[in-house]
Amino acid sequence: MAVNDLAEARATVQPRTRAEYEDFLYREAALLDEWRLDEWLELFTTDSVYEVPTMGVGLETRPDTTLFYIADDYRRLQHRVTRLDKPSAHAEWPHSTTVRAVHNVRILGVEERGVHVACSFTTYRSKHNFTDTYIGYAHYWLVELNGETRIRAKRVQLGMDSLQPHGKVSIIL
């Protein structure tokens, strides 16, 4: 077992207050809006997943049986961050301006993979004189690792009928 694997195995599920989780989610939003993607990636455990399923599916849906817009494990998430930081990521170079708002943060319970924290969100993406709006719900499973809150899983459920007019998800939600 690698050192990182041992550290992940020692991650604990330890609930914090709603306000503490809310501050954590605000920090995550700020890192994404400021395009500090390497720092954002540090919020995740090395056994984490980041998922954006197609619209209209529930939390029980798995990427091995249903189409997802994004279904990244940690390694794929690292590649996504590296790619988005390069000029060759044409859809996001130069970077879009984004503004994220996090709403209605709730602690839904403690589960095997972490404390289940959910929120609704609005993300505005502006580029080339157009502003796209993404709305939905984010579900997090958070753990404590070396005294810090970390994301073991994040699932973004879009609350939209379609991806029109933008037709794609080129930013991290």
List how many beta strands DSSP finds: 6
- How does the overall form come out from the CA principal axes? globular
The low-pLDDT segments are 1-7
Helix content: 10-25%
Question: What kind of sheet is the major sheet?
Answer: 6 strands, mixed
Describe the protein's architecture and organization.
The structure is a single chain. 23% of the residues lie in helices and 42% in strands. It has 173 residues and is α+β, with helices and mostly antiparallel strands. A six-stranded mixed sheet has the order 2-1-6-5-4-3. The radius of gyration is 16 Å and the shape is globular.
Short note summarizing the structure:
With 173 residues, this protein is an alpha+beta fold. It has four helices and six strands, in the order H-H-H-E-E-H-E-E-E-E.
Which descriptors apply to this entry?
4 helices; alpha+beta; about 170 residues; disordered N terminus; Nuclear Transport Factor 2, Chain: A
List the helices and strands and how they pair.
Elements: H1 3-9, H2 18-33, H3 37-41, E1 44-53, E2 68-73, H4 74-84, E3 97-111, E4 114-127, E5 130-145, E6 148-158
Parallel strand pairs: 1-6
Antiparallel strand pairs: 1-2, 3-4, 4-5, 5-6
